Each structure stands twice: as structure tokens, then as C-alpha cells.
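Technical annex B. To support the medicinal chemistry partners, we prepared a structural model of the target in complex with magnesium ion, based solely on the information shown next.
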Amino acid sequence: MIHLKSERDIEKMKESADIVGRTLGEVAKLIRPGVSLKTLDKVAETFIRDNGAVPSFKGYEGFPASLCLSVNDVVVHGIPKNQELRDGDIVSVDCGACKNGFHGDYCYTFEVGHVTEEIHNLCVRTKESLYKGIAEAVEGKRVGDIGHAIQTYVESFGYSVVREMVGHGCGRHMHEKPDVPNYGSIGKGARLTKGMVICIEPMINMGVRNIRVDKDGWTTRTADGLPSAHYEHMVAIRENGSELLSTYRYVEEVLNKKTA
Ligand code: MG
Ligand code: MG
């Protein structure tokens, strides 16, 4: 069953989404070689709670932390450990916050220090593919239109789309129907209707699409050890087009300062 959201619900979701966006901004300030994943997680959890929200991920099916921090060949669901980031790494920071009964859930992949051009391109094109998907998130279209747009874009560079994990509806539960795969066919899948809020989140591998999960039951890696990138936005389907509830504004403010 798909839970459609009222205008009031969507306003509440914007507040949760804003907290996630600002949390990602706080994390962005700290990302550099030598910082530990545990530190990033602690800063995020404190920031979320200080803003009257609850970290959506902590305790979700037993997940032990507030952020999923996925470094290099880790696709998603990396557990923050004492591991320190190194120059040339990429790290996907996936964050969830719940306030007023509604969840925010989205993600940004950061470059740590100087990454190779090959890896930089993977990040840039994965982010671009997210916006290709968002452009298809229009009332009357289907989730297959979103997946198709993402898939054709990234495969044109020789990358591959993870199949086992997909985007999703979001609301009072972090993961709701419909599934929003990052692959698919035009005109196939659930129909997009006004009031749906969906998370679109391409997980794109430089090499093969296959994945494997570590013994911890969470950490999900590429089968070939090559890097993977991940970006996620929350999109509300409106009568005339769609509206982003999530924002990279706070992240971009920090990144622009770093490069200035
Ligand atoms: Mg998600
Ligand atoms: Mg997420």
C-alpha cells in the first residue's frame, strides 16, 4: 500500500529533511584525511538530537549507528568504526532523522582530499544520474521511467547499477512502498501520483554490479572491490511536476568554502 501525503504531512517532512541536510553540512565540515568514522557519527547524532529529532537509522533492524558511512568499495550500510578516512577515499554519508512523526532520509558521497579523476567522474556522474531520475518524477509517469533514466545514463559510461537495493517511498516509515529501482523500463512499475514522497538513490558501481555483504550483516561491498558512489534525494510528486524536500545547500556551502 502506498501512503499519500497531505500538504501538512509534506511540510513536516520538509522539516525532517532540513535537519538531515544540515546534519550532512556538519559532517561535511569535518571530512578530511585522518578523521574517524566514529567521530562523524557522533557529531551527526548529537546534531540530530539537538534539533529535536531522532536518528532514523539507529536501532533500525538493529543498525548500531546514526549514519551509514560507506567508504570506497562499500556500496551502502557501512557501520562507522574507528577507521580513519585517507586521502583519495570517497565516503557516502547516508543520514536519516525523524521529527513530528516523519522521516527524512538522504545521502551525499564526499571526496576525501584528492581523489583520482576516474573516481571523481564516478561521483559526478552518479550525482548527475540522480537528477536525470528526478526529472522523470512527474505525476502520471512510472517508477520505471525513473530507473530507466538513471540506468541508461550511468551505463553509457560503463558503470553498473546495483540491483539488490533500491529507492523507496518515505513518510511515517523510513521505507514505504513503492520500490524505486535505479534500473527499469519506460512505462513500467508503479504509477507516480500526487502526494507520493519517494527517495531516489542511485547506487552506482565503477565495475561489476554484483555485491557481497560482510559478516557483520550490514556492510555491503562491490564484488570486484572497485569503488561505488551513492546519492539520494527526497522528492514529493506534485500536480505540476515535483518538489525536492531534501537539500544539498548546506553541503555545498561547506564544499564551496573548501575549494575557495
Ligand atoms: Mg533511502
Ligand atoms: Mg538513505
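Notes passed to the chemistry partners:
The pocket of magnesium ion (ligand 1) is lined by residues 105, 168, 199, 201, 232 (CB under 6 Å).
The radius of gyration is 17 Å.
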